[in-house]
């Protein structure tokens, strides 16, 4: 009996319920939302497109029933689209350099394509902002203020202002960075799960060898330069794009951190201390790890002493 369809339907049900939980139990639902892509990726990494497409259909039906209205296209873009992309790329086999045995599509390139997809969604967002409304930043700030006022209508104006002050100025970039991170972590979790259950199609990648394509790093540097020199809407969007494209470099920087920790007498204690500082350090720590990722990228491309 073919178990692909029932397993995919169950994955779609789980994905839809995890996504919709935010509406019904906001505090717990916010945490569940972070892994809502994982069940879809389990179906995709286990059965390919034959598994993820039925799962996507079931997930759409679940979200349509529990969260009708504008949320449905949002779910399709935020969860379904990256799940299909990652599943299709992860099960792709490419030719090895020098004519060796075929290789599985590398995780660094999958992460790069997810980031590029996020950048395309950011561009569509910018293009969808009507002209003559004071610029994209003003539109974003106005939408945030309206949402906070609607949710906290019974609170004092002072409290609302305090909450608004804590909302990131570059909200699209913050969302983009968290979205890319969320998809990447869900992919790692899904691969771990299908491997543990004995249903993995491809072997688990060696994440310590994570590498990024030069075009992604070049795009990051271009966006970072634009963020420094451009003004107005172009500068605002360049900053947001830089925040998103920084995520793959952060992951590559973490590879360097883990490699350094292995040289310590107690690597586990060192990593716990690092991640505590990483979380508490906020933007400064993230930028430092991204810089470490740039260094690692440059080191890997440095010619060997023998010129090989």
TrEMBL record:
Coiled coil: none annotated. Keywords: Membrane, Transmembrane, Transmembrane helix. The chain crosses the membrane at residues 12-35, 47-67, 74-95, 110-129, 170-194, 214-231, 238-260, 272-295. This is DUF2232 domain-containing protein. It comes from Rhodospirillum rubrum (strain ATCC 11170 / ATH 1.1.1 / DSM 467 / LMG 4362 / NCIMB 8255 / S1).
């Amino acid at each position: 009996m073919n178990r692909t369809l029932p397993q995919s339907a169950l994955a779609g049900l789980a994905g839809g319920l995890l996504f919709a939980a935010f509406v019904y139990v906001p505090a717990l639902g916010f945490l569940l939302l972070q892994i809502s892509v994982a069940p879809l990726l389990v179906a995709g990494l286990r059965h390919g497109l034959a598994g993820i497409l039925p799962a996507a259909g079931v997930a759409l039906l679940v979200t349509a029933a529990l969260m009708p209205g504008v949320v449905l296209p949002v779910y399709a873009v935020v969860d379904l689209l990256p799940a299909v992309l990652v599943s299709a790329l992860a099960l792709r086999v490419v030719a090895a350099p020098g004519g060796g045995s075929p290789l599985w599509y590398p995780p660094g390139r999958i992460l790069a394509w997810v980031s590029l997809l996020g950048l395309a969604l950011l561009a569509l967002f910018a293009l969808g902002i009507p002209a003559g409304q004071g610029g994209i930043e003003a539109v974003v700030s106005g939408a945030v203020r309206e949402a906070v006022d609607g949710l906290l209508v019974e609170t004092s104006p002072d409290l609302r202002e305090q909450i608004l002050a804590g909302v990131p100025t570059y909200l699209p970039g913050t969302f983009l960075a968290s979205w890319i991170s969320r998809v990447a972590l869900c992919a790692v979790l899904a691969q771990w799960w299908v491997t543990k259950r004995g249903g993995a199609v491809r072997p688990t990648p060696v994440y310590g060898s994570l590498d990024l394509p030069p075009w992604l790093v070049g795009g990051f540097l271009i966006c970072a330069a634009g963020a420094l020199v451009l003004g107005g809407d172009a500068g605002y969007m360049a900053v947001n794009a830089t925040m998103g494209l920084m995520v793959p470099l952060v992951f590559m920087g973490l590879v360097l951190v883990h490699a350094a920790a292995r040289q310590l007498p107690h690597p586990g204690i060192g990593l716990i201390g690092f991640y505590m500082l990483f979380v508490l350090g906020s933007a400064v720590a993230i930028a430092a790890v991204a810089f470490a990722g740039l260094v690692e990228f440059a080191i890997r491309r440095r010619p060997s002493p023998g010129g090989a």
